[in-house]
Amino acid sequence: MRAGTLSNLWRAVVPEPGPVRPLAVAALTSRIGRGLFYTVLPLYLTRAVGLPAGQVGVGLTVASLVGLAGGVPAGYLADILGPRGLRAAARTAEALLLCGYAVIGNFTGFLVVACLVTLFESAGLAAEGALIAGSVPSGKRVATRAYLRSITNAGWSVGAVVAGGALLEDTRRAYVVVLLVAGACYLASALATMRVPAVPAVPRKSDGPRWVALRDRPFVVLTLLNAVLGMNLGLFTVALPLFIAARTDVPVALYSVLTLINTISATLFQVRVSRGTDTVPGAAAAALRAGVLLAGCCALFALADGQPVWLACVVLVAGCAVHVTGELYQAAGSWGLSFELAPEHAVGQYQGLFGMGRDLGQILTPVVATSAMVGWGWAGCLALGVMFLAAGIATPPAARWAQRRTGAVAGVQKAPA
Fold it and tell me: Are 243 and 300 in contact (CB under 8 A)?
């Protein structure tokens, strides 16, 4: 390979010196840790700790609900204290708590650790959004988010592959080693975060409301619409493999192929799909495209119900390709809306609120999507498609409403809440 080709490849993968480079290192290391951690967690809890699967499910659900409470308060703290320190502190806390999983021995210990992990994870994500917003110019925020998502997809895959060795050994020692390595990855992420130039804090004005994001009704509506569109992730990761197993005669091994298609596509094309979504109209248009595409993928999945194996395989692969395209547009649109509609003095709050909506969608998806696709078959798939389409169609007018409101939220500050 020629030196010029290697140089071009390096520039395409590694950002120029500046804040994006340590942000990328922080994102990559944390997502490797997440890939390690989440891959082994269910089996570690059931096989090594000895918890019943039902208790694991209840504990993770409760922890997810607790995590919802951390988004907006953490975003508020990121605004008034500065996001860099908060994000580094949250990552450090996660590192220590992941190691705490290695010493739990009962459901109570698991529940406490799980709740704290999700709480600090939510806080870190809110601070991360504010840190990105404060580190790069407005017109480059979505492109930076897209690049970081490509990096995180690769990191998650690396973590999951490495964790596969622990799954093969299937011993407590192997699982504990993975948990400790995951904790070290989170600590490395915290250290990389401190290499990002500090973003100045924005002290709250005494004559302004504290929870401005929660008072912004059009933004709350957009948050809920994005939560619906974001349910496509759980549809793919939870409902689709169960649908394949229960409603088709296709070998479940096909799902690994679909996952590979999804991961590679997200890594290669997220930046390209995100172009033009750094304005409110562009982001809203991306959300509309996402709704249409996700409705289309649900229709294709519906066609697989009860069909011959060859036909089911064809439509499932086609549906996967349409799904990942819709997923990429949904992600890009969500970044554009959450960044461009947030007043500069409350970016952290707005990122936290948008993240709460995303997390709420992920909590509801396993129940909603699995019940629809597995319980109702093709009819349930079409119902989910209508839901996605409706959310996509509703996003542009909601975005215009929110854009009209943004100036008032940023400029008018009343008595403290």
Answer: no
Please, is 2 exposed, middle or buried when counting C-beta atoms within 10 Å of its C-beta (0-12, 13-18, 19+)?
exposed
Query: Would 145 be classed as within a structural domain?
Result: yes
| Residue 16: per-residue pLDDT | 67
Domain shared by 134 and 234, yes or no = no
281-330 residue pLDDT tens: 999 999 999 999 999 999 999 999 989 999 999 999 999 999 999 999 99
Record the tokens describing residue 276, joined without a space: 């033009």
Say yes or no: 92 and 233 in one domain: no
pTM of the model: 0.81
Helices (H), 101-140: 107-135
The rounded distance, in Å, linking the Cα atoms of 173 and 157 is 22
Q: By residue range, what is the domain housing residue 234?
A: 212-410
In this structure, the answer to whether residues 141 and 264 fall within a common structural domain is no
pLDDT < 70 positions in the chain: 1-17, 203-209, 406-417
Degrees (nearest 5) of the Cα angle 136, 351, 97? Answer: 100
Q: Is residue 11 part of a domain?
A: no
Calculate the CA dihedral of residues 108, 109, 115, 119 and round it to 10 degrees: 150
Structure tokens at 92: 């450090």
How confident is the model at residue 67, as a pLDDT? 86
Residue with tokens 């998650």: 156
Say how far apart CA 290 and CA 275 lie, in whole Å: 14
Q: Kindly state whether residues 222 and 147 are assigned to the same domain.
A: no
State the total domains in the chain: 2
Determine the pLDDT at residue 416.
41
